[in-house]
Structures
1.
Amino acid sequence: MPRDQMPDVLHAVSDWLPLSYAIDAVAAVAAGDDGWDLWRPMLVVAAFTAGALVLASLTLRRRTP
């Protein structure tokens, strides 16, 4: 379902999910866009990736001999 046709509540939730931005980035590449239309969703996906890696690293136990 296109995000523009979603109910307001679902559209607001989709703004917080990284897959929405990944789809926007793929659509921008397919359309031949460049500049902010392409880099904004890619930066959001990169930020989600970095945040997930930081959270994952905080859950690991430290092993010091």
2.
Amino acid sequence: MDALPDMTGKGLQSAQDQAQAAGFYNLHSHDALGRGRMQALDQNWKVCGQTPAEGQHPADVKIDFASVKLEEDCPGTDQGASRPETANTMPDFTGKSGKVARQALDASTSLRVTDASPAGRMVLMESNWQVCTQEPTAGTKLDGQPVTLTAVKFDETC
């Protein structure tokens, strides 16, 4: 058993380095805002929470850091702790990122995400866009039909 420190508030790279120095190497991280973003450049992210919490743990335990970008505030509750299961009933994606919606749907689903604003912008980074409307509606049985979402950037209102 090794002592895992509390990494909350530290930069993600620093938290990973300190965890390794304490003997932990099974390190993971996720987007605490639930937008499905990758932590590609760890120095640009900070730790909001961790699983497991600080304390004595076996060295091979999986450490998962809930993270947000440096300029963002940590959410009150971790929105991205687990990936959604593939849906056979249409979930309610309102307010979720386009990327989270894509991950929740079967890989064979035809999915179109378009700009809900009158600007007609291309939706390139789906993790930066929040869903405003969806077709089919939440609760509809999914049986191979195409899915259409409209979305705006997260700093915009639907």
